[in-house]
Model the fold of this input.
Amino acid sequence: MEIAYYPGCTLQASASLYDEQCKKIFSKIGINLIEIEDWNCCGATSAGKVNDFLATAMPARNIGIAETAGFTEMIIPCSACYSRTIVAQRQMEDNQSLKKEINRTLVNKVQGNIKISSILEVLLDKVKCGELAEQVKKNLKGLTAACYYGCLLTRFPYHIDIPDNVENPQSMENIIKVLGVKSLDWSYKTDCCGASAAINDEDTALNLMAKIMKDAVARNANCFVVTCPMCQFNMDAYQDKFCEINGITKRLPVYFITELIGLAFGMGIEELQIDRHFVDCTVLLEELNFL
Done:
C-alpha cells in the first residue's frame, strides 16, 4: 500500500530521526510512504502572520503535487504541517473563488479529492484492523506515558472535523495500549508548550513547559510520548532549564510514538536513533530490560 508522504521542513532538519522512524515502522505494517516530489514549506505559523493568501497557497501547492501524482491520501507526521495543510484544504473547499485564484498560479492544480491524514489517524486504522498488533514482538509493560498531543493536532483556527475528542483525544492512548504501555489520564495533553515562542519569549515558553512537566510528574509518569516535533524538541531540549528554574528534580524522556512502536517491533537503539535525544531516553529502557 502506498501513501503520499509530506515530511515538512522539521523532519528534514532537527527531527530527521523522526522522518527515518516513520518510514521504517510504516514499512513494517505494509505502508510504503512515498515522499511527494519537489515539496515546499507549508508556511507553518509564520506565513499566516504575514499573508493569509500565502498561508493557504503554500500548502495548496503540496496538495496539488500529491493529487497530480494520483494519490488519494497523504500522511503528515508534523502537527504544524498537518494543521496548516488540512486547514488550507478546507478553506479552499469552502471558498471556491480562493481555490480558483490559487490554482491559477499552480502547475499542479488542487482538485480536492485527497485525504489529509495525521500520523495517528493512519496508525489507529492499523490498530483497529489488528495489523499493528501482529508486528509487536516486545511488550513494553513498565512504561507509564503522558501522551502529549500539543495544541495543534486537534484544535485549528478553522472548523475541521477530526476523528477524535478535541479536548481529550484518545488516539495515542489507544495505539500505545497495543504495545503494553500504560497511559495517564491527565489535564495537560493539549496544552501549548510555547512552540517557537521559546526563541522570542523564552520566559513564557519555559513557564508553559514547566506546567506540563509538573502535572506529568505529579501523576507518576515516567515518560512523555509525542507526535509533534516542535513539542518533542521543546520538552526535550529545554527540560533541564525549565526544571531547574521551577525546582523540578525529576527528568522524563520524551519519545516520539514511532520510537515506542519501533521498540515493540523489535528494532534497536541504533536503528531508531533513540540515543540522540537531549534527555537520555535509554536509561529507562535499560531499567525495564527492554534493551
Observations:
- The chain has a mean pLDDT of 95.
- The two ends are 31 Å apart (CA to CA).
- The beta strands are 2-5, 32-35, 73-76, 115-118, 144-148, 182-183, 223-226, 254-256.
- The longest strand covers residues 144-148.
